Amino acid sequence: MRTQGDAIAMLRAWRAPDFGQRALREAFLGLLEARPDATRRSCVPGHITASAVVLSADLSQTLLTLHPRVKRWVQLGGHCEKKDATIAAAALREATEESGIDGLVIDPDPIHLDVHPVTYSPASVQTAPADRVERRPSPESRCSATRAGRPAGRPIRR
After folding, report:
1. Considering only CA atoms, which of 120, 116, 118, 150 is closest in space to residue 133?
2. What predicted TM-score, i.e. pTM, was given to this entire model?
3. Which of 27, 108, 112, 118 is the most buried (most CB within 10 A)?
4. Residue 69 above 90 pLDDT?
């Protein structure tokens, strides 16, 4: 599972901005090291997902999607797939699929980690997400990595 190794390397290298984010990083690393399927939806009670914050070129607007099951407006993202080489690749694939915008560029560094409970599953069992590594400007317990995405040719400002 390529995304597993990538998630571990990415989190180990990431400089968390505060104590809360450092604590989540350590929790995510614990999950990744304990579960070889931590980046797969089959990992119950939680798993890592990938998301992206898609910004307009002038940074004045953010693209959100209405999640069909959660019934909330959220950033674009979802589950890692076998074809995804990295968490960033999964976030970019999800952002492109969900937005319909070709040529998005992703910032490879996370901007935020998040853990959120998702109370639905195929077996109707509440799971606890491990969650998202959000990338610049996100366990089911989901862990997600959120990255910033923008149209090609427009660099992301730091």
Report:
1. 116
2. 0.76
3. 112
4. no
